[in-house]
Design goal:
By secondary structure, the chain is of the alpha/beta class. It has a domain of 214 residues: Rossmann fold, CATH 3.40.50.1100. A six-stranded mixed beta sheet has the order 4-5-15-10-11-14, with helices on both faces. The protein has a five-stranded parallel beta sheet with strand order 9-6-7-8-16, sandwiched between helices. Helix 7 links the parallel strand 6 and strand 7. The longest helix has 21 residues. The protein is globular and about 60 Å long. It binds pyridoxal-5'-phosphate.
């Protein structure tokens, strides 16, 4: 299995090269040249398997330059005993009306990013052995809140690796901020930036693709890589859990082999929903992909009209991990659905950079709309969804998952589509205690974060994850703030 770039079809890379490099030198994203297929028989065989085995089956198809023993070692290190609090790793909870919630937040940092970022450091270590000639890898991360912590935790004290995280100063929840600023480890750095997630992401991308920075690092025996979902090594582990959820539904008798399901995903950078698209292309019986956004609804407009226009106000919402106007992974979808037209993708991405918008050809829009439905919901409706789901079904969801729940409700009402539904649940509610309490009309502004946690627990009975409870009373290690313009200097200083 070889990889190419979304913007230049002359690029060829192995999986190990794609993972260590993170992004192609001309700015495109690595994509597999063809997608493997998992047959019905293979799917049936996965039903009785544990998560690790399912992961080995799926990952091996993409990591053809890894031995099976290497893939297995990585999967065991990530998903083995004690790493995830749920024994199933990614359990499926069934609500009423054929709605199934796929809980992706039982890892050490309580958000779905752990699903990929617990294994990425191991994939990177094995990849680096194959490709990087002993260079030290510098992972640069831009985060809207959850990736930062998950990447710090995954890469802390990893040999021959440094990790630097940039987060928007006022764009993350208090718990997310505390998780990052208290991070332990000898190879980690954390810095706030004055700006939003898009500023952080474009800053990181600019540093990656700056030849002068690349040379400078090389002269110090270092190379950059990415732990954002632009890195192929982030996406491929996310494909696994859609297969796993389908297998769990088969095992519980909720569906029978071949039944179609819809998948709904609270979306920001388009990585999670893209992984569901890949699962579908690999033969998983998924009918429609439902892309749910908050009021940063650039993707809803795009899927409905074919015009992607980021020239709009950026909103800070109760679902901060989805406060994004430039959804990087959409580029990969455009590449695949345009019949691998790298020239077209390069042109569209050039327009996005230059003019802030682009429009796809009609033929491409038709294909997107066959596969995807899209909707968005504002903070008020997000709160209502949290409250209603708890009152009616005794199920507590976080502010991001609630966006998908609200969008699905509307989708089902408008279309009458009763296909069984898998909703990707992306964070533990206690990461966003203030907003979740507000949904119950119970927020008190002067309370400390951990009083809120206690009160939410008293109100709902939902268990508090030990890793969040343990943050109480911890002193931040990192308090640096920089601007978009000084990110490069900050990186150099951190690497000294
Ligand atoms: C990152 C994140 C999302 C968005 O996922 P993408 O893959 O970027 O679309 C949604 N919810 C939570 C809680 C997240 O951390």
């Amino acid at each position: 299995m070889m990889y190419t770039s979304t913007r230049d079809c002359s690029v060829r890379a192995t999986a190990a090269q794609a993972i260590t490099q993170g992004i192609s030198t001309e700015g495109g994203l690595f994509v597999p040249e063809q997608l493997p297929v998992i047959s019905k028989d293979e799917l049936a065989a996965m039903v009785s398997q544990k998560y690790i085995e399912r992961a080995v089956t799926v990952l091996s198809r993409f990591l053809s330059d890894f031995s099976e023993a290497e893939v297995r070692e990585c999967a065991e290190a990530a998903y083995g005993t004690g790493r995830f609090l749920a024994p199933e790793v990614a359990p499926v909870r069934t609500l009423k009306d054929d709605v199934h919630v796929l809980e992706l937040w039982h890892g050490p940092t309580c958000a779905f990013k752990d699903m990929a970022l617990q294994i990425l450091p191991h994939l990177m270590r094995v990849s680096a052995q194959k490709t990087s000639d002993g260079k030290e890898i510098v992972i640069l991360v831009a985060t809207s809140g959850d990736t930062g912590k998950a990447a710090l935790e995954g890469f802390r004290d990893a040999p021959h690796t440094r990790i630097l995280v940039f987060y928007p100063e006022n764009g993350v929840s208090p718990m997310q901020k505390l998780q990052m600023t208290t991070q332990q480890g000898s190879n980690v750095g954390v810095c706030a930036i004055r700006g939003n997630f898009d500023d952080a992401q474009s800053g990181v991308k600019a540093i990656f693709t700056d030849p002068a920075m690349r040379d400078k690092l090389a002269s110090q025996g270092m190379m950059f890589s990415s732990a954002n979902s632009i890195n192929w090594g982030r996406l491929v582990p996310q494909i696994v859990y859609y297969f796993s959820a389908y297998c769990d539904l088969l095992a519980s008798g909720a569906i029978t082999m071949g039944d179609k399901v819809n998948v709904a995903v609270p979306t920001g950078n388009f990585g999670n929903v893209l992984a569901a698209y890949y699962a579908r292309e690999m033969g998983l019986p998924i009918a429609r992909l439902i892309c749910a956004s908050n009021c940063n609804n650039v993707l809803t407009d795009f899927i409905r009209t074919g015009t992607y226009d980021r020239k709009r106000d950026f909103h800070t919402t109760v679902s901060p991990s989805m406060d994004i106007l430039i959804s990087s992974n959409l580029e990969r979808l455009l590449y695949h659905l345009s019949g691998c037209d790298a020239a077209l993708v390069a042109e569209l991405m050039g327009k996005l950079q230059k003019d802030g918008c682009y429009t796809v050809p009609d033929t491409l829009l038709v294909k997107i709309r066959e596969l995807f439905a899209a909707g968005w919901c504002d903070d008020e409706h997000t709160m209502t969804a949290i409250r209603k789901t708890f009152d009616e079904q005794k199920y507590l969801c976080d502010t991001h998952t609630a966006v998908a729940v609200a969008v699905c409700d509307e989708y089902r009402r408008e279309t009458g589509d009763k296909t069984p539904l898998i909703v990707a649940s992306t964070a533990d509610p206690y990461k966003f205690s203030a907003s979740v309490l507000q949904a119950f009309g119970a927020e008190q502004a002067d309370e400390d974060e951990f009083d809120k946690v206690d009160r939410l627990h008293a109100l709902t009975g939902a268990p508090v994850p030990p890793s969040l409870a343990a943050l109480k009373g911890q002193k931040p290690r990192f308090d640096q703030v920089c601007s978009r313009e000084t990110m490069e200097e900050t990186v150099c200083a951190m690497l000294k």
